[in-house]
């Protein structure tokens, strides 16, 4: 496939830990095409989280290039990165990261607020996104009035509402029981069949099993990059 | 971030943390309350002084020629007092001179005052103002009669023992009776009551109805003034302009009478309504000069409180800031959010302060004889100060929030 969403070339990221220079990524190259479903795996300390922050444009590399949807984001200043996060990336976090005092609808509207969408259109699009994840009847609930699975689905709706280039999920089922996990993964599977590019960062093999491709990181380098038979959610 | 969204969020925060919000508001609230209340009371006082005090005590288009001024606000030093006591009194010759040489139309009345006891049968009233005046005095003071009449020119000339009494004197000495034609003992002599003057009300809580007026040449004068001297000469002109001319002319005439050289100060006083106000003007000027300082102190304290509350809010909501940044909030979105939130809190404080200040002004009005008039400009200033203090206090916390690293922020619990 030539239609690349993500193109990473020899990416490194160093941190200064006191006196010591720590290399979290030591030269990672990776290409992800449109509508791919990629799992990024690796033990803790493998550079997985750094990779996630890089992919999500929350952090910039020490060296190397990161092209996202045709723009080089590796050298962008803060505000430009904020704009890219807003337009190109839909985050799904392990801890959901919903605003506790806002309703489901308001949470989903949030990326549209920063995109400068008018309030009426915001509401319509947020409703649509919530309906897509099956929460059309929970829009006015606050996060603490929703179950874990429902909260994660609100987060997915929020990630999708700006029609991002990639859906970036960080341990999306880490805080969920297995039944709800399966539920959330089914949503991911369905989104992929609808054309969404998905990147899941996880250390759980059965979550990675949903992806068509598994990239394993080890000590800041790509240890393996393999395509696999997708295991659909039960 | 749309402005309205940020304001709505600020109200959410205020509402969910009512107690904390109250304490964060209190500095600005007190500052603005103080501003509104003081301005209202001072303004009310000014209106009162102009309308009531000056016009009723001195009279409209009227001035009084006296040995020394009897409205002295501020410090009177011993030196000044000694100088005043050395001055010659105003005498009949002066009055005659002015009356013939003034050159503008005017009403004149001499007057002498004292305070004393009045008895009717076995009733008595103490501390009544006993004045002897000329017949035009009633016109000068614009007195209306409940019943009876002023002195006739004949009674005036003859110094007849007749009296016109104030409403409170009538009530006290003649309860349930018509005082007209009855007699009251003033000093040792009986006076016949020929008129009762309409109720004048109070001034600073003092009754304006405890007086008795008698003809200038009646026997009572001998108790109040010596020989040809008087306490004051009242002069009323038909208009403000004519009064101004009359004041100037009277000053010239008196300087001639007293043979003052050009470099000598006046050794008499001409008292006008405006002059009576000058003391008050001085006091209100001092109050208005001190007010900004006092308001500024509470606003600075209020601003610091708000800044601290906002710093606390920023650290409590670090994760929220991380989420917002991850979802695409730019630095200036976060900056605007917290500045608007801070300004909203402070403005709410200012609005409560305005309400409280107006309430306080009306409370003072209800409980004391002081009037209160809320000045619209002070409300405008109050709102402006609320917004400004909040914005300034919000800048530092907001810039801290806007500089947070989204990765770190998302990691905090």
Strand content of chain B: 15-25%
Number of distinct helices of chain A: 7
Structure annotation, total helices of chain B: 14
* E-strand count of chain B: 14
Q: How are strands sequenced across the largest beta sheet of chain A?
A: 6-7-8-3-9-10
- How much strand content do the residues of chain A show? 25-35%
Spell out the key features of this protein:
heterodimer; A: 234 residues; six-stranded mixed sheet; four-stranded antiparallel sheet; 7 helices; 29% strand; globular; B: 413 residues; alpha+beta; six-stranded mixed barrel; 14 strands; elongated
Overview of the molecule:
- The complex is a heterodimer of chains A (234) and B (413).
- With 234 residues, chain A is α/β, with parallel strands linked by helices.
- Helix content of chain A is 33%, strand content 29%.
- Chain A is built from seven helices and ten strands.
- The longest helix of chain A has 16 residues, at 178-193.
- The mean pLDDT of chain B is 87.
- In chain B, 57% of the residues lie in helices and 18% in strands.
- In chain B, the strands form three sheets. Chain B has a six-stranded mixed beta barrel with strand order 3-4-11-6-8-7. A two-stranded antiparallel sheet of chain B has the order 2-12.
- With 413 residues, chain B is α+β, with helices and mostly antiparallel strands.
- In chain B, helix 2 packs antiparallel against helix 13 and helix 4 (92-101) packs across helix 9 (240-257).
- Chain B contains 14 helices and 14 strands.
- Chain B starts with a helix and ends with a helix.
- The A-B interface holds A 53, 56, 58-59, 78-79, 82-83, 85-87, 91, 93, 97-99, 101, 110-111, 113-115, 119, 158, 162 and B 1-2, 5, 12, 16, 319-320, 322-333, 406-407, 410.
